[in-house]
């Protein structure tokens, strides 16, 4: 119980510190701006306006949330170590694993608070373009789409915290951004490498496919827009996959930070 209180205290302080970061509000304003922009684009493009608004609004949440997760995640540990703010905390009877997990929980909590604000704006926008005054999508499908998005953002934050546990904040930002982008292209990467005549290249494609996070699996926006079934066994499998990958990454992060020599 004492360990849990210490972890939650670190998370709470992380949230308070993150909410004072001005860049966070810039990303939030950018995300909400994209959501509002979807109304303009829906009027100048062909197609169903509600689908365009939904696509752009949820995509804005995804982009804004990912940017927040990376920016806050790389500062969570690396930034604290570089500014020597981590030393007084680690000097207390707190394990490094508690410190890392507490920082991660604080980052995710901050991201989720801002995502909730963007989700409110997106939901209001989608509702205003829905037909006959009723919300366009079923509550279960809409919430499932947002839940998978939240899981994806939690995984992106875990990636950022992982790199920040053993590198500088600059390197962590570059590596986290690169891995996040690669995680959206794992299928295509495996496909193109699989066309090679070299068995080693094909094996490399398979290895990257199974090692890198597969963020496409955690997306249901396309199904939502086309009103396809979302609550399927595939969604459950994707949730299990994301949760297991996230847990493994946090364990690895804790192990890496435990072995890190702090100057």
From TrEMBL:
GO CC terms of this entry: plasma membrane
Annotated keywords: Membrane, Transmembrane, Transmembrane helix
One matching Pfam family: ABC2_membrane_2
Protein name: PilI
Recorded GO MF terms: ABC-type transporter activity
Source organism (scientific name): Vulgatibacter incomptus
Transmembrane segments: 23-44, 56-78, 99-127, 139-163, 170-187, 238-257
PANTHER family on file: ABC TRANSPORTER PERMEASE, SLL1107 PROTEIN
């Amino acid at each position: 119980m004492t360990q849990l209180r210490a972890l939650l205290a670190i998370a709470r302080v992380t949230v308070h510190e993150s909410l004072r970061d001005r860049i966070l509000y810039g990303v939030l304003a950018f995300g909400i701006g994209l959501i509002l922009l979807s109304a303009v684009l829906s009027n100048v493009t062909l197609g169903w306006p509600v689908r365009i608004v939904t696509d752009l609004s949820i995509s804005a949440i995804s982009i804004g949330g990912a940017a927040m997760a990376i920016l806050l995640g790389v500062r969570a540990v690396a930034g604290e170590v570089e500014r020597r703010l981590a030393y007084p905390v680690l000097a207390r009877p707190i394990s490094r694993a508690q410190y890392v997990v507490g920082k991660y929980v604080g980052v995710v909590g901050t991201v989720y608070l801002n995502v909730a604000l963007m989700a409110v704006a997106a939901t209001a926008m989608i509702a205003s373009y829905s037909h006959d005054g009723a919300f366009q999508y079923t509550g279960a499908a809409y919430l499932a789409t947002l839940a998978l998005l939240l899981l994806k953002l939690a995984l992106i934050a875990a990636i950022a915290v992982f790199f920040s546990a053993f590198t500088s904040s600059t390197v962590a930002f570059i590596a986290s951004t690169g891995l996040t982008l690669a995680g959206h292209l794992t299928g295509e990467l495996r496909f193109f490498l699989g066309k090679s005549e070299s068995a080693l290249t094909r094996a490399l494609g398979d290895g990257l496919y199974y090692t890198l996070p597969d963020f496409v699996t955690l997306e249901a926006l396309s199904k939502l827009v086309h009103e396809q079934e979302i609550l399927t066994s595939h969604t459950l499998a994707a949730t299990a996959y994301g949760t297991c990958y996230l847990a493994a990454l946090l364990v690895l992060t804790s192990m890496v930070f435990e072995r890190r020599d702090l100057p």
